[in-house]
Amino acid sequence: MEGGKGQFIISDLSSMEDTKAAAKSITKVVDRLDVLINNAGAFFPKYRVTSEGFESTLALNYLSPFLLTQYCRHPVKPLL
User: Which one of 16, 40, 53, 75 is CB 3.0 to 4.6 Å from 33, fit for a cystine?
Assistant: First the structure.
């Protein structure tokens, strides 16, 4: 988008606590959210569990994008 601007929020999305903190950071700096790009993913060949007790691949690839979207849904501008 010409003339548009974006902002990056760096976070460890394998952590649900950090995901919530990222959402708080996003909602503090914007009053309206047009696009949220959930661009994180990984495959961990060995079974690993996060500090919250979730399997790491599931936490990073599914839970965090879902939670981030849920936490940020209120500033999203309706299309209609």
Answer: 75
Q: At what angle do helices 64-72 and 16-29 cross, to 10 degrees?
A: 30
Q: Cα–chain-centroid distance for residue 30?
A: 15
pLDDT digits (tens, 9 = 90+) for 12-26: 888 999 999 999 998
Q: Which domain holds residue 62?
A: 16-72
Instruction: Record the pTM.
Output: 0.76
Compute the distance between CA of residue 5 and CA of residue 15 in angstroms, rounded to an integer: 27
Q: CB-based contacts of 58: which residues, under 8 Å, 6+ apart? A: none
Asked if residue 22 lies in contact with residue 29, where contact means CB atoms within 8 angstroms, the answer is no
